[in-house]
Design a protein that fits this description.
With 459 residues, the protein is mainly alpha-helical. Helix content is 77%, strand content 0%. Helix 3 runs parallel beside helix 10 and helix 9 packs across helix 12. The radius of gyration is 21 Å and the shape is globular. It starts with 9 loop residues before the first helix and ends with a helix. 53% of the residues are buried.
Amino acid sequence: MNKRGNFSNRLGFIAATAGAAVGLGNIWGFPYEVSQGGGGAFLFIYLFFCFTICIPVMLTELAIGRKTGRNAVGAFKALGFKNWKFAGLLGILSSILILSYYNVIAAWAFGYIFEIATFNFNIHHEFQSYTSDLFKVVSYAIIFMALTSFFVSKGVSGGIEKLAKVLMPALIIMIISVSIYAMTLPNAIQGLEFYIIPDFNEVTLSTVFNAMGQAFFSLSLGMGALITYGSYVSKKENLVKSAVIVTLADVGIAFLAGLMIFPLLGFMSEGHLDNVANGPDLIFVSLPEIFAEIGGSTGAFIGAFFFLLLCFAALTSTVSMMEVPVAFLVDEFNITRKKAVLTTALVVFSTGIPSLLGNGYSDQLTSFVKYIGSDQPISFLTFVINLANDTLLPLVGLLITLFAAYAWKKANLDQELAIGSDYKASFLQRYMTIALKYILPIVLTTILIMKLLVTFFGV
């Protein structure tokens, strides 16, 4: 039997778990959702969901992991519920799918460091041709996958924890540094006002669903990562306090990302922020245009610095996602960690090849499928995002909630969460009972159905 690692202390666990939560979604997805959802109004809804809906799911996943000391599949078997292991398998599948496209996007960001550092400010006009350059994007993707594999191969305390302890403080310092610089630019205040001041007239039912989805994805719920990380946690650890700190860290960095990006967008648009781009267009087209407008050595330095920051955020997430299938292989098949990492890397990279090709290189994969009710086909990469983020994550979250409430039973969850904390007889314990049995099943089922209808059927 291979010896499983453990986090060396609370700081290591919190840094690694926060690193899993903080990623590309905080920096490119969050600002767009904020802009479409009424600025500060979306922030309020997002925060509400993080603490009322997401923390109960987070605590449940961490408790299952720590109780069993097993991976996302083995945990259910160790608790005596082999029939529920499919929930863990779906979590592993979602982590593999997300990592497969995440590595592609991280590769683009990695390449942008060199493009902008060498004063190629026209890159924002050449994004389509850049993603179609197979030699470049495949090379960058291999490098980023190798970096992820290297740190995961070093184990929990020797690789993942050490990386998180360095990158998380560095990431925060970098975001604050760019934010301070952005605030010195013309029209930065208009961008900041657009971000912070709530406009409740813009809030729709779609805003509420998007806020829930953003909260769920940004906290790494439903992909087996928190069950896996929980399995490496000491029994002395206060899971409740740690979950709150991780949530605050994730929310805080997402908020800081907005303080960085919206002043930059205010500068570029001369204060008219009516149409903020989403996803790749925001990061790889709109923001490089800003660095080009700044120009010279300053623009090159700020631009390269920003994409280095983006790579740091991506790496803290990719190592956590890779650890999910790696832990499964090590635990269930008793193979060495290095072999598990190599196997996982090959599977993930192979799965991501259509996403690499589906952004201009291959017409068939670029226009992969057209959903019902949609006029435009979507790329393979977007399809994987819809399948993993919009379908599997809420589905796995729902299954884990139902498992904790009706199979494992709430009393057993309470017993695990009470270790190292004053959880019992607290308001949180009473709320968790109501949330797991009634609120979460209804909310997550509604979110899942609505996401499916809106995304795949154009309702």
